[in-house]
Amino acid sequence: MKYPLCFWHGLMVFLLCGAGCQVPSVTSEPSEAQAAVVGKSEPSSSDTFLPGHLIRLDQAVEKAIDQKKLPGGVLWFQQGQRVYRQVYGHRSVQPKREVMTEETLFDAASLTKVIATAPSIMKLVQSGDLSLEAPVSQYLPEFASNGKETVTVRQLMTHTSGLRPGLSLKAPWSGVEGAIQQACAESLQSAPDTAFKYSDINYIVLGVLV
Questions:
Q1: Is residue 110 among the annotated active site residues?
Q2: 3-state SS record for the chain
Q3: Are the CB atoms for 24 and 96 separated by under 8 Å?
Q4: d(CA 17, CA 159)
Q5: Of these residues, 25, 28, 41, 110, which one is catalytic?
Q6: From CA 84, how far away is CA 87, in angstroms rounded?
Q7: To 10 degrees, what angle do helices 118-127 and 200-209 make?
Q8: Does residue 193 come out as left (phi exceeding 0), alpha (psi in the -120 to 50 range) or beta?
Q9: In Å, what is the CA distance from 10 to each residue of 87, 104, 170?
Q10: Lowest mean pLDDT: which of 21-25, 75-79, 152-156?
Q11: What does the pLDDT read at residue 33?
């Protein structure tokens, strides 16, 4: 079955619910999900949202809460002016129980690489503003220092650039500008395209390109 784009956007948020929370080993009572639908009309199978899929997602989250796989979560679908949102469970159970809210912030951490930075780069490739095989220095000249002049956008995306996993914390630096300067000053640990090494530096630089 072919699902509408809004289904996948909402599913991505649903996945973040589970990835961003860990359940402490305490007994907690299941809480009722708070639901709201905003729009000109109620969702229907012929309209923006597919109720059957929404019900299954609700059931999956509630089951995970019952099994103590996560304390709670937030599900948010949006297409144009139409929004479907659900709030589940608790955002904290220790040291005190706090009900989950729509305003709860989740630490998405490295998930931003695959759900934000990489798709944004591909949108720029699609629009012709970036080329995967172009050297990064074509768009960020200062990146060419210390032997990185041939590293391509694709090599950053696939962690085959030869850069080390993370920025050094030995020298003092702070802020976004400091991180960018450190990334551009890095040297390669291996030749590009010869080894896979997961690197936050790769995606710091890709974020600059976006």
A1: yes
A2: CCCCHHHHHHHHHHHHHHHCCCCCCCCCCCCCCEEEEECCCCCCCCCCCCHHHHHHHHHHHHHHHHCCCCCEEEEEEEECCEEEEEEEEEEECCCCCEECCCCCCCCCCCHHHHHHHHHHHHHHHHHCCCCCCCEHHHCCHHHHHHHCCCCEHHHHHCCCCCCCCCCCCCCCCCHHHHHHHHHHHCCCCCCCCCCCCCCHHHHHHHHHHC
A3: no
A4: 26
A5: 110
A6: 11
A7: 40
A8: left
A9: 13, 17, 41
A10: 21-25
A11: 40
Do 76 and 15 meet the contact criterion of CB atoms below 8 Å apart? no
C-alpha distances out from residue 121 to 48, 112, 151, 160, 184, Å: 28, 12, 16, 16, 19
Bridge pairing between strands 98-99 and 82-92: antiparallel
Contact call for residues 150 and 156 (beta carbons, < 8 A): no
- pLDDT value of residue 66: 93
Scan for tokens 């995306």, then name that residue: 157
Confidence grade of residue 84 (pLDDT, cut at 50, 70, 90): confident
Q: The whole model's pTM is what? A: 0.61
User: Rounded distance, CA 98 to CA 78, Å?
Assistant: 26
Q: What is the token pair recorded at 111?
A: 């998930």
| Token code pair at residue 118 | 């990489």
d(CA 42, CA 146): 58
The 10 Å CB-count burial string (b at 16+, else e) for 40-78 is eeebeeeebbbeebbeebbeebbebbeeeebbbbbbbbb
